[in-house]
């Protein structure tokens, strides 16, 4: 159970970092997504492009909701 919590925390942190990177990056979103996907792969997390985009969009929406609310 502890290992699952660690994995969930890591994935959550990676997702938040990815969203913030895309929101504030001076590069095009596609280039930033590629860099994020590569960084996740190096950590052993493999997401296809669609899953990565869905994850980033979901996190970006949550961040925007928190800023508004």
Keywords:
0% strand, globular
Structure description:
By secondary structure, the protein is mainly alpha-helical. The chain has one domain (2-68). The protein contains 3 helices and no strands. Helix 1 (2-24) runs antiparallel to helix 2 and helix 1 packs across helix 3. It is globular. The relative contact order is 0.15. The model has no long low-confidence stretch (mean pLDDT 75).
Reconstruct the topology from this structure:
Blueprint: H1 2-24, H2 29-42, H3 49-68
Characterize the main sheet: none
Rounded Rg? 12 Å
Distance, first to last CA: 33 Å
Shape descriptor: globular
The mean pLDDT is 75
- Write down the domain tally: 1
Beta-strand percent range: under 5%
Order of helices and strands: HHH
Structural class: mainly alpha
Helicity, as a percent range: over 70%
- Model regions low in confidence, pLDDT < 50 over at least 5 residues: none
Total DSSP E strands: 0
Q: Please, how many helices?
A: 3
Give the assembly state of these chains. single chain
């Amino acid at each position: 159970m502890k290992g699952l919590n660690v994995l969930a925390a890591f994935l959550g942190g990676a997702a938040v970092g990815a969203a913030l990177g895309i929101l504030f990056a001076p590069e095009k979103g596609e280039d930033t997504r590629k860099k994020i996907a590569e960084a996740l792969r190096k950590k052993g997390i493999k997401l296809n492009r669609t899953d990565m985009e869905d994850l980033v969009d979901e996190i970006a929406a949550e961040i925007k909701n928190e800023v508004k609310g």
